């Protein structure tokens, strides 16, 4: 009990960044808890339920942003249509809400969330600095974002997850359900397919000043002072865990990868102790365990 009290300020700060509230009781968590007994796309025991309820997602989220920035058209869409520099926490909260709603919510909530994002994507289009047109509705870009997120969340859990063994193929297959609903054509359904699709994007990727500027912002996010040391530990480990070919593109040869990974593991253990459990996951469990409401 004494340790939980000591860690409560840390837990409150982290939850506020992720959900906008120090208790983590966000609007999406409340929506996930309803209606009583309603099934979702997934349930307890599915790999996606375990992975997305783990504190390893903190590291996975950082890694996915670092990786996705390597695609010039995806980066152009973020740079010109996102307020992440002015409101980095808002973007983080929206991304977290999407993952939570599709993983733990009812079928209706998951579908509503997908439709809302697809509607927003209709406005994300333009011309990149290299003269090529881009659109957030482009199936190829949707696939890039999907495989980058899937690979990053899975790798982070395999490296740092402490909530039980998972089947890697099962997680990729679970994520394919979400990807297909988002409009991804033929998303990977096995760990091997995930690696093959990720490799297939290599000719389209590049590193330039825009990439380094964006990655620099990600690695040094403007967090409250008390959270910056811990975040930088996770960011270094996320960077080191990028695919070897991505690190080669970036001209990076991590010299302290083993130390950084150990420090990140320790930091995530502290977070796990502080946060206790994912509010979204608990909300999903409550909904599924409740008797269906006859009025709905």
Any overview of this molecule?
- With 296 residues, the chain is mainly α.
- The protein is built from 15 helices and 2 strands.
- Strands 1-2 form a two-stranded antiparallel ribbon.
- α1 (2-19) crosses α14 (257-275) and α6 (88-104) runs antiparallel to α7 (107-121).
- The protein is globular.
In short:
The protein has helices spanning 2-19, 27-32, 47-52, 56-68, 72-81, 88-104, 107-121, 139-160, 168-182, 191-200, 209-219, 228-240, 244-249, 257-275, 279-289; strands spanning 125-127, 133-135.
List keywords for this structure.
mainly alpha, two-stranded antiparallel sheet, disordered N terminus, 2% strand, 296 residues, 2 strands, 65% helix, 15 helices
Secondary structure layout plus pairing:
Blueprint: H1 2-19, H2 27-32, H3 47-52, H4 56-68, H5 72-81, H6 88-104, H7 107-121, E1 125-127, E2 133-135, H8 139-160, H9 168-182, H10 191-200, H11 209-219, H12 228-240, H13 244-249, H14 257-275, H15 279-289
Antiparallel strand pairs: 1-2
Helix pairs in contact: 1-14, 4-8, 4-12, 6-7, 6-15, 8-9, 8-10, 12-14
Poorly predicted ranges? 1-8
User: Proportion of β residues?
Assistant: under 5%
Please give the radius of gyration in angstroms. Answer: 19 Å
Order of helices and strands: HHHHHHHEEHHHHHHHH
Spatial sequence of strands, sheet with the most strands: 1-2
Percent of residues in helical segments?
55-70%
- What is the straight-line distance between the termini? 40 Å
What is the number of helices?
Answer: 15
The total strand number stands at 2
Shape: globular
Calculate the mean pLDDT score and round it.
88
Largest sheet: 2 strands, antiparallel
- SS-based class: mainly alpha
